[in-house]
Amino acid sequence: MTGIQERLATGKGKFTPRYPELGTGPVSYEDSISQEFFDAEREAVFRRSWLKVGRVEQLPRTGAYFTRDLPGLGSIVVVRQADDSIAALHNVCAHRGNKVVWQEHPAQETKGFCREFSCKYHGWRYGLDGKVKHVTNSDQFFDLDMSTLRMPQLHCDVWAGFIFVNFAEDAEPLRSFLGDRFLELETYPFDKMTQRWGFRTRIKGNWKISIDALLEWYHPPYVHGRFIDPDVSKAEKLVPPVDSYHYDIFVPHMLTSVPGPPLLPPREAGRAGPAVRDQKWIYRLFRAGLFGPDDVPDLGPMPDALNKGRIASWGNDQLWAFPNLSVQLWARNYYITYQYWPEAVDSHLYEVDIYFPPPSNAQERLAQELVVDSTIEFAMQDSNTVEATHSAVATRATRQFQLSDQELLIRNFHKVVGDTVAAHQNADPTQEQR
Ligand code: FES
Ligand SMILES: [Fe+2]
185 and 254 share a domain? Predict the structure, then answer.
């Protein structure tokens, strides 16, 4: 063990035996390559869970709206109502089914402000609440009861400024779905972190294999070696020991909590920083890196719920909201959301949004940009592995895979998805035939 590792070691460790229901045997990845399972999962998991679709800052006043085209689920319009509440509507016209809200291209998402929505096909108009307000040539129709016509609503609710929707007819309340471990983070200052960098890409791999890549911190010396140290044996000695991490499972959600590097000492007045041009030189000059800016903005008191594992040199808590959202809260006062939208059994859209307090000067802005750059670089390295893993697993040349103690969240995640699909099929056996 190196000095860094000794300083961070806790002597805890051995995580999986705390969760006997998870077992310790090899696992199958059939749930990530089977078309049949993919179809069942969309019904049981994605059509029945609360899904984050945006933030309240995207809807600053009445009439503000944005559309989301959610693969396999449909297009929706999320809109701020006259009473300031937020509603979600299926983006479909009651006349002949045209998509109501779009701009140049029907497949592209859009946003804006309006008083009413107007269908481009025959000009029917809808209020912000989705109800039909005006039918063109209405005397041409037969027994038309306008009061019953609308863009259908779906469940929509807000937690801590995050807007969620649920496609189920009978959705459990959002707060009970999220549970105590999320609710105790309600006072986290998400509302102060409005400087956002957003990225989206398509990854040719199953969405769960992509989530697996962030559920363990076993891979960094190998996948991210060039960043840590190109010499793998040195990189292995620079990452924290396995027992310095903290894992928590609160079905269906879960969390990893990880250590991070100490802050650089404050910058000496009038000095740019050390002029050593090694590969980390720019991080010292800009005073930022993968774990955030070194000059941490003061955002006031933070909720006690952070760093529950009491990691001495805490780096971040990464919460996983079932099924497809992660919220990563960093010790250096910024946060990242990761979201995964399955398009097909072997493809998903991957969204990474990084939020900081607005920078107050150029140095803070540059530090944030360097954090963003490092984060995206790491994310791309992870994505490469996901594509390589999916294509190899899909051959079915090997059907059983091995998970170590520090990969217990992967074991848990696949079990929860499988249990959710099984419970749904048992409750409604017709689902299997659909
Ligand atoms: S389809 Fe919308 S007005 Fe005809
Ligand atoms: Fe990674």
Answer: yes
